[in-house]
């Protein structure tokens, strides 16, 4: 299971990565974390007394390994080189809308990338809707040049 909070959410630019691998998507919350605006995608950072809204995604077991490799690549996470990865994939407990506590993979960013920045809060969908023009322009530029850096 994965907890997603940004561009991998349904209706967001990277939702296509899930393909037909999804078995279930459930609204969920990750406590003690917040989001930062990285231009057109969020970075989740651990923070006490805050929470992030997202989704718990359950995938078909036979597609899990291949999907994990794709998501690690998207999130610039190298399991063999944590120090040089932009995000680190960690197991965290998330709370579903029904109150169930579930362990899921979460891509957590590194503090050095958000130093001096103000958090955007805990709801990427609301933030993206309010900043749609800026975000759409970035994604159009990125889609025109897929080799462009995400940072």
Quick overview of this protein structure:
The chain is an alpha+beta fold and 151 residues long. The protein contains 3 helices and 6 strands; from the N terminus they run E-E-E-H-E-E-E-H-H. The chain has one domain: Roll (Hypothetical upf0131 protein ytfp).
Provide keyphrases for this structure.
151 residues; Hypothetical upf0131 protein ytfp; six-stranded antiparallel sheet; alpha+beta; 3 helices
Structural notes for this entry:
- The chain has three helices and six strands, in the order E-E-E-H-E-E-E-H-H.
- Strands 1, 2, 3, 4, 5 and 6 form a six-stranded antiparallel β-sheet that branches.
- The two termini are 26 Å apart.
- The longest helix is centred in the C-terminal third of the chain and has 13 residues, at 132-144.
- It is globular.
- The model has no long low-confidence stretch (mean pLDDT 88).
- With 151 residues, the chain is an alpha+beta fold.
- Strand 4 and strand 5 (101-109) form a beta hairpin.
- It has one domain (2-144): Hypothetical upf0131 protein ytfp (Roll), CATH 3.10.490.
Specify the CATH class. Answer: Alpha Beta
What's the tally of helices?
3
As for the CATH topology, it is Hypothetical upf0131 protein ytfp
Number of domains: 1
Principal-axis shape equals globular
What is the ordering of alpha helices and beta strands?
EEEHEEEHH
């Amino acid at each position: 299971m994965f907890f997603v909070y940004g561009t991998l959410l349904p209706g967001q630019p990277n939702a296509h990565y899930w393909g037909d691998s999804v078995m279930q998507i459930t609204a969920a919350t990750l406590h003690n974390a917040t989001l930062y605006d990285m231009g057109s995608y969020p970075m989740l950072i651990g923070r006490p007394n805050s929470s992030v809204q997202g989704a718990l995604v359950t995938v078909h077991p036979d597609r899990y390994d291949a999907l994990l490799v794709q998501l690690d690549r998207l999130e610039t996470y190298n399991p063999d080189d944590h120090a040089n990865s932009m995000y680190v994939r960690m197991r965290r407990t998330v709370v579903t809308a029904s109150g169930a506590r579930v362990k899921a993979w979460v891509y957590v960013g590194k503090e050095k990338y958000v130093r001096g920045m103000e958090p955007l809060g805990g709801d990427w969908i609301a933030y993206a809707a309010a900043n749609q023009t800026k975000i759409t322009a970035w994604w159009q530029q990125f889609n025109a040049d897929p080799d462009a850096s995400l940072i």
